[in-house]
Amino acid sequence: MNQRQSMTDAGESGGAKPRRLGKNGDGAERHEAIYRTISDAIIEHRLKPGARLREDALAEVFGTSRTGVRKILQRLALEQLVTLTPRRGASVTRPTAEEAKDVFDARQMVECGLMPEVARHIKPDDVRELRDMARREREALKSGEQSRAIKLSAAFHERLAQLSGNATLAAFVGQLCSRSSLILAVYGSSGHLGCESHDHDDLIGFLEAGDGERATAFMGRHLKAIEASLSIVEEEQEAPDLHEIFGV
Amino acid sequence: MNQRQSMTDAGESGGAKPRRLGKNGDGAERHEAIYRTISDAIIEHRLKPGARLREDALAEVFGTSRTGVRKILQRLALEQLVTLTPRRGASVTRPTAEEAKDVFDARQMVECGLMPEVARHIKPDDVRELRDMARREREALKSGEQSRAIKLSAAFHERLAQLSGNATLAAFVGQLCSRSSLILAVYGSSGHLGCESHDHDDLIGFLEAGDGERATAFMGRHLKAIEASLSIVEEEQEAPDLHEIFGV
DNA sequence: CCAGGAAGATACGTATACAATGGCAGCCAG
DNA sequence: CTGGCTGCCATTGTATACGTATCTTCCTGG
Question: For chain B, which domains are there?
Answer without folding.
Answer: 27-92 (1.10.10.10), 97-229 (1.20.120.530)
